[in-house]
């Protein structure tokens, strides 16, 4: 199959491009559907014809890490100085500046939405010139917001996140959110003046703990700690022809996420400790200590400590990353791959070197990377295991008693 087409669009302020603009009640410039007259303000311009390559990195490498800002690097052909901010002959003169909104899509599916932080111009005396746009997603904007002093209301994690996003200092659009209710009731803590908005939101997320990230469409996402989705009908990656084929796969088995002693220190409260004696006897003590969490009661802290020990007291056998080449897939398979998002559940089937029985596991996506070239498009997924997932009623995989543990 062919590489699906990639579209890159930049939001330019057309009022700075000189018009002509739509004028209400004007007999010529006020006619609707008139393509010669634009509405003033920011409009997205398709600049795909100049794109040489695109790379996108979103997510995190390990389950207990924080999600950081997604990044995109886009290289444009700049031989005619279209993206040179000093060239008055550019159709976008005066618009090649930092903080312009940019979005990337492939095959009609969103891949990245963020802002341009830096423009990097490279001129070669041979005549090849390029312009590079270094971009980050909405986490960067949240990291630049400071909260005013206030006392929060005791509420569930999802409600607390919405409360922060609603504040005038943040003012995150309501239509760009996907917020789960959450499992933890948080205390009515006092937020100091000048508290970094992103750091506070990450503290709320750690108190769950869940998945908090910026979506590929620019939306703010919070997913609680329950299994992300019903396993039946999930995308299957397989090396035996029963699912989407992959080109590379990496497996880790070790103690990077082995914690058999968990200590939870609650803000304005006590300390809860949970441990697995058998695991400590076998592997030695591996401690996870989290402090300042916003849990409402000491009982909640004890339950969270128990939950974390149940999740991490044994070494983890995990499909760390899996790569696919889109040009090697059918159109239907490309659509499935491009439709995947962080926190989606996948099934992975793999028989190393064709030896022995297949390894068959479910996993949650925690990282997505794209490398787009003119003739190839490589997508890499990173995962966390679902070997110790909580029970999900009526689920074909996670609803089996004596296999999946009850959620806490």
- β content, as a range? 35-45%
Class by alpha and beta content = mainly beta
Rg value: 24 Å
Low-confidence stretches: 390-395, 398-407
Average pLDDT, to the nearest integer? 89
| Quaternary organization | single chain
The tally of strands reads 25
What is the molecular shape? globular
H/I helix tally: 6
How many strands, what sense, and barrel or not for the largest sheet?
13 strands, mixed
Give the N-to-C terminal Cα separation. Answer: 46 Å
Helix content: 10-25%
What does the model show?
Helices cover 14% and strands 37% of the residues. The strands form 6 sheets. Strands 1, 2, 3, 4, 5, 6, 7, 17, 18, 22, 23, 24 and 25 form a 13-stranded mixed beta sheet that branches. Strands 11-16-15 form a 3-stranded mixed beta sheet, covered by helices on one side. 33% of the residues are buried. The radius of gyration is 24 Å and the shape is globular. Mean pLDDT is 89; it is low at 390-395 and 398-407. It is built from 6 helices and 25 strands. The protein is mainly β. Helix 2 (157-166) runs antiparallel to helix 3 (197-206). A hairpin with a 4-residue loop joins strand 19 and strand 20.
Provide the fold topology.
Layout: E1 6-13, E2 42-46, E3 51-59, E4 71-77, E5 101-106, E6 109-123, E7 129-136, H1 138-143, E8 146-147, E9 150-151, E10 155-156, H2 157-166, E11 177-179, E12 185-186, E13 190-191, E14 195-196, H3 197-206, E15 211-214, E16 220-223, E17 235-238, E18 248-254, E19 261-266, E20 271-275, H4 277-283, E21 287-293, H5 298-312, E22 316-325, H6 331-339, E23 345-350, E24 359-372, E25 377-385
Parallel strand pairs: 11-16, 17-23, 19-21
Antiparallel strand pairs: 1-2, 1-5, 3-4, 3-24, 4-7, 5-6, 6-7, 8-14, 9-13, 10-12, 15-16, 18-22, 19-20, 22-25, 23-24, 24-25
